[in-house]
Amino acid sequence: MKTQRLWVICLLYCLVHDSFAQEPIRFCTHNHTHNSSCGLEALPEDQNTFIPPPASYVPFAPRTATITVNYTGFTPNAQTAFQYAVDIWASVLNSNVPIVVNATYTSLGGSVLGFAGAEDFRRNFAGATQTNTWFPIALANKLNGNDLAPGFIDINATFNSDFTWYFGTDGNCPSNQYDFVTVVLHELCHGLGFLGFGNVSNGLGTVQQLSSPAIYDRFTEDNPGTDLVSMPNNSATLATALTGGQVYWFGAQGVLENAGNRPRLYAPGAWNGGSSYSHLNENTYPSGNVNSLMTPFLGSAEAIHDPGPIVEGMFVDMGWSFNSCSISNVGIGTQTPCNPSTNTYTQEVIVTYTDPPSSGLININGINFPITSSPQSCILTLASSGLQITCSVEFTESNACNYEIMNAWLAPSSCCDNIRITAVNEITNQITLRNYGTCLQNINNFQICSSGICTNVSSTTLISGNLILGSNQSCIVQWNAFPASPSSGNISMHDPGAAVNDPTKILDFMQWGTPGQGAESTAANAGIWIAGNFLTDISPFTYIGNGTQYGITFWDGITPPCAITSLTGGTQTTCNSETDFFTQQVVVSFVSGPTTGNLTVNGQTFTIGSSPQTVILSNLISDGLPTNVNAFFSSNNGCTLTTNNLFVAPPTCACFTDVNNDNTTNIQDFLLLLSDFGCTSGCTADVNGDGVTGAADLLLINSSFGIDCP
Is 521 helix (H, G, I), strand (E, B) or coil? Predict the structure, then answer.
C-alpha cells in the first residue's frame, strides 16, 4: 500500500478569452509551487513493480499518430526516455493531425515529478461528438481532421530535474529512483484529455467553464448514478459529490474495459487540487495493476509502460480511436502442389488477433482479405518458385498491428515455365535460351546479365526463334556488348526489371574461368549454383543437363590447350653447411596438363599432379644468385614456361674446397688436389665426398677459387 501520500496537482484553470474560432479557451501554465497545471507527485517508497508496454506495441513499426516534441533543457538520456514514451502513445492512438508538445526539463524543487496539460480547448467545431462541450485541442483536431490552431502547441509539459531519475526503457527501475518513461506517459495522458473541470473552492463545486463542461466531465457520476454535469454548477451539492469518495466513470467503453464495472475515480473526502477527480482511484488500482498509470501517486522503483485498458476505454468514450489491435500468432497451414496449368499453388495462413480495426482488410504478403473473426484462415494463391517465403501480415487500417515470420514456408518448384540458358558463345556473343517447361512463356524483357551489366531480351536482340517460347523451344539472343571473355566470365538470367542482386528473381546462372564474378553469391543464395565452382573449359559452352539440373557438371565447353600459366616461388631452406646445398619449393599452375609423362622443373622430374602443383627442387648450390626456372611436360615439351629470377639462392655457407684450412680457396688447395689426384682411399682432397680425388673435385675447387670461407 502506498503511504506518505503527496499530492498530485491536477489543473488550476486560468481562463482567458482569445480571438480563435470554435470558441476556444486556453489554460495558463504557471511555475510550480503548491498548485499548478496537471502533474504527478513522488511517493518515496519502493514499489518494485513493472507493467510492460501494450502487447500491440512493436518498436520501429509504423505509427498511427504523429507526436512532435520541442525539447528544452533535456539531457540526451532524458530525451531518449521521453521519445520512448511518445512512441508508445503514437503506437496506440489514431490521428491524422500531428500532435505538438512543448517539453521542459528544469529544476522545480519540492516533490512534484512533472506536470502537463492541454494548451487549448475547443467546443462546437465540425466533427465534435457533443455540443457545448470543451475538447482538449489534440482531440478536437483529431475529430475535425484538421489543425484548428495552426502554429500553436497542443500540450505543455514540464519535468523536475531535481529527482534521481531512471532513464532506461526496460522498466527495470532501481530502488530510490523514479521511472521517467512512466511520468511522461502519465503527463501526456493528461494533455491528451484525461482531465476534467472538477473543482471545489469555499464549499462550492463546479464541473463547467463558461457554461460548458469538458468532454471528460460528460462521463462522470456519483455512486447512485447521477451524472455530475446535471448537478447545479458552483453548488454545495456538486462539492459534496466531488468529495464523497464515490465518483465513477460511466462511459460504455470504459465500463466494458473494466469487466462491466464503472471505473472509480479518485475523490477523497477533502478536495485535493492536484489529485482529486482527474485520476483513477489509488486504492482500486494499486501499484502493479495494469490500470495504475493514471492514479495520482508514483512510487520509486515503479514502472508503468502501458496506458491500461481502462484509459483506453475512457479515451474511446471521449472520441479517441485507440489502436489496441494485436496479432498474437500466425500459423502456416495447408499448402497445395504446383498447378501446371497456372504454375501456382495455394498456401493457408491462420491469423490469430485481438481488437482488430473496425474497417479495412487483413493484408498478407500484399493480398487483401476481409476481416472476419479470430483465428481467421486465409488462402493465398502464389507463384510456384521453389523459394523460402517470408510471411508478412498487417491490417490496412492499422499497419502498426503487424506480424512477420522469416522463411515461413517453402514454395513448390515451378511446374510450368522453366526458361534456361543452354548455350553461351563468347566468340560470337550469342546466348541460347530454351523453355524446358510445359506451357508458353513470354521472355520479352527478361534480363541477361554479366558482372552486373545487363541487356534485355527483345525483338532488337533476338536473332533466332520467338519471344514466346513453347515447350522445348529455343531462341538465340545477340549481345555484342557482352563484357566477358572466352577465358573468364559469367552469365545470369533474371525476371524483367529485377535487381541483379535479388536472389528471388534470378532464373539461371553459369560461370567460367576466374572466381568471384558477377551474380555468383546471388545464384548461390537462390540455390542454383555453388559459390566457387567454375568451368575450366573455354567458350563456347553448351548445357548438357535436362533443364532441372544446375552446376558445372551439366555444362560442357572446349578443352583449352595445355599451358603452364604461372611459376611461383615457395618455401626455401637455409644453406646446408656440410654440403652448401639448399632446397626450394616451386608452385606450378597449369591447365589441360597431359595424363602421361612427367613434369620437369629445372631438370628435376616429378609425377604430374593437379594444378596448382607444388614441387621441391633439391641439391641446389648456395651461391647467393638469382635463379631462372623452367618447367615443361615431358610428353608435351611445347607446354612450357620459363620465369626469370624466380628466387634468389642463399649465400654459400660451406668451405669444403678449402683443403688446407686457411679459410680461402686458393692455389695452395689446387696444388694439394694435384698431389692427391687419383687417390681412391683416405683422400686428402676429396672435396665432394665421393671417396676419390678426381675431376669433380677439381671442378669444385675451380668454381670456388678465390672465395673466402664464411
Answer: helix
